[in-house]
Amino acid sequence: MDSAAQWLASYDQKLVRAAANAKAASETLSRMSGTATSPRGEVAVQVGPSGALEDIRLTPAARAMEVEQLAKLILATAQEAQRSVGSQVVEIMTDYVGDGPALDFVKQNMPPATGVDATSGARPTDNDEDYFANPRVIV
């Protein structure tokens, strides 16, 4: 009977530690944000821990851009900020949950790396002929 009581006390301690770790992770994650600025500084964005857009700033130079070009720049800059916060989330979660299925799930739901098409994993090419033969459709 003594070993059962010891097991139960040990299990209770594990639960208390897990709850404390979950609370600490939640507090740390809630304070995270990712920021990115376009290469020439026309666009700056900030995203929260989930990757949701929280702030966007456009400089006067953005007004001189074509709307399609500006839209792509905003999207690319936001994705960079999302990758930034995503890497922070993975780092924090690694500290709390270690390697395993929970961390794998977090990693699988992070934005793809720069220049990678999320649907195919293919890298964009600089070949104009290929671009016109296989144009990207943005919906």
From TrEMBL:
Show the stretches that span the lipid bilayer. none
- Oxidoreductase as UniProt keyword: no
- Please indicate which superkingdom the organism of origin belongs to: Bacteria
Quote the Gene3D superfamilies the UniProt record gives: Nucleoid-associated protein YbaB-like domain
**Leader peptide range in chain numbering:** none
Q: Provide the alphabetized UniProt keywords.
A: DNA-binding
Q: Name one GO molecular function term.
A: DNA binding
Q: Name one Pfam family in it.
A: YbaB_DNA_bd
* Protein name (database record): YbaB/EbfC DNA-binding family protein
Can you name the source organism?
A: Saccharopolyspora spinosa
